[in-house]
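Backbone-to-sequence.
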């Protein structure tokens, strides 16, 4: 059996960019196994040297670690590049090209990379996250009209992670509304969102996948049976169709893929 390849996502900030882009590349190798570790907030040369030792310690005669880096500080980046591992520079390798085109030198600031340098963009994202948290799983019906998007789906179809991702990465105010058993008695949208159909986007899954996910949460329950999952998904799909609500099947899609399709289908602006 082939040993898993160690993968490190290193960053001067949160590491979200390195992790997202790195995982996008790794997804192109479905037959291989990886062990992943994110190391954020590398802000000093001393910390970079500690991380360098950690990465190089993962080297073996047969396995070379992969390092995906979004570190923007040039001194720290050069320190990390001394690794014996394969270093994929997601930041510096393209920055020279952008500088040449714009005829302006970059700031090499981690704050700028994550949007903190642009106060208005940062504030929008923080407000979007607060909105998504307040309106998670139908917890609050207050100010639903202010939502850029309302995700509608049966339980465990991926509403919460998709809402949070769209808020964090794209600055969108996303509410998510769960369809419960009584909602399936009719093809009408539930009353709290009936007047907001133009903001709604539906999520679906496959009965087998939904049953598996629900079974991990409530083993042996009616909620997790294949019959119940099939019924809810059929009724949800009929509801979306009746109200011309766009939808996607989340069973084999990552959160990043779902977010991209939703943005394209809804023609929503990327505010992040």
């Amino acid at each position: 059996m082939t040993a898993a390849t160690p993968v490190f996502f290193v960053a001067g900030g949160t590491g979200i960019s390195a992790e997202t882009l790195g995982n996008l590349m790794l997804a192109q190798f479905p037959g291989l196994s990886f062990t992943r570790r994110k190391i954020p907030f590398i802000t000093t040369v001393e910390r970079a040297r500690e991380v360098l030792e950690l990465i190089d310690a993962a080297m073996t005669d047969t396995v070379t670690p992969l390092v995906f880096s979004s570190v923007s500080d040039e001194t720290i980046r050069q320190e990390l590049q001394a690794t014996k591992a394969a270093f994929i520079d997601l930041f510096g390798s393209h920055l020279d090209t952008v500088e040449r085109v714009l005829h302006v030198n970059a700031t090499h600031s981690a704050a700028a990379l994550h949007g903190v340098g642009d106060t208005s963009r940062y504030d929008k994202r923080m407000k979007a996250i607060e909105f998504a948290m307040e309106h998670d799983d139908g917890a609050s019906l207050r100010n639903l009209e202010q939502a850029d998007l309302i995700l509608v789906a049966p339980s465990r179809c991926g509403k919460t992670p998709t809402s949070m991702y769209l808020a964090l990465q794209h600055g969108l105010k996303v509410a998510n509304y769960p369809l419960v058993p009584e909602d399936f008695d009719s093809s009408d949208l539930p009353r709290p969102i009936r007047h907001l159909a133009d903001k709604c986007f539906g999520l679906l899954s496959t009965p087998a996948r939904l049953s598996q996910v629900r079974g991990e949460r409530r083993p042996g329950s009616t909620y997790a049976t294949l019959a119940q999952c099939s019924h809810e998904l059929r009724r949800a799909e009929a509801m979306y169709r009746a109200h011309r609500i766009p939808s996607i099947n989340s069973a084999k899609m990552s959160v990043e893929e779902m977010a991209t399709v939703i943005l394209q289908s809804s023609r929503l602006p990327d505010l992040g």
